[in-house]
Structures are given as C-alpha cells and as structure tokens.
Specification:
This protein is α+β, with helices and mostly antiparallel strands. It has 4 helices and 5 strands, in the order βααβββαβα. Strand 2 and strand 3 form a beta hairpin. The chain has one domain: 3-Layer(aba) Sandwich (Aminopeptidase). The longest helix has 15 residues.
Amino acid sequence: MISIRPMITEDIQPSQQLLSELGYPLETKELRRRYDSVMGTADHALLVAEDEGHIIALCHVYARPALDKPPEAVVQALVVDRACRGLGVGRDMMMAAETWASDHGFTSEALYSNAVRSGAHAFYETIGYRHTATSHMFRKSLDQR
C-alpha cells in the first residue's frame, strides 16, 4: 500500500537515489543542508511516497508570491522511482501537491520541466496541466567575482 506523507530526516538518504534519477546527484551532507533549508521555511512542503517502507517518490512544492503573475504554488521537483513509473504514483503525488496548494489558499499550481523531458510533459498534460510558456534559464556563478 502506497502512502504519501511529509518527508522526514530519515528520508534524506533514500531520496538521494531519486534525485540522481532526476539528474541531480548530491552528496548526503549537501542534501541534508538543502533539506534543512527547505524545512526551515514555512511556505515549502516536501512530500514522499512510501511503499512497504521504501521511498519511491519525492515532491517539493512551495508558495510563490509574485508581482508579474498571480500568486501560486510551484512544484519545484517531482520524481518517481523508475521501477514505479506508470503506476499512478506521480499522479497521486501531484494531487497531494495540489491539495497542499489549495489548503494554502492558492487557485493555481505551476511547474517547470526541462525541454528534453517529453515523457514528463505528456504526463503533466494527461493530468490537466497545460504548456503555457517557453523560456530560457540563465545562470551566473557568483563564486568567480
């Protein structure tokens, strides 16, 4: 039986593999630092799906106030273990994120997905999300100033 619940400290290590599958391999110390930072913020939620004691999915959702858009919840990350994809776990995780958003007074939820993740795009469209914009992300390392 799959259950969705808030992420706890003990979920950090099993979440490493999931984040690696998403393309973000992290050392345990760095993942712990990021977990502590997110958990220290009231307008963020980390959710996990658990099946028979194994973490099989992870979702990070947060509140985004903005001037240029309506305030909304944003799904920062969603990943389901490769072995569990296609079983409805991702849909259930997104429903949990939507419930969190509604409970926090938001009327919409947004997410960003890498342009190369066509399978993810199809999934999101299947559960009611619509492609509304295409943009480029720019980043500058501040270490080199």
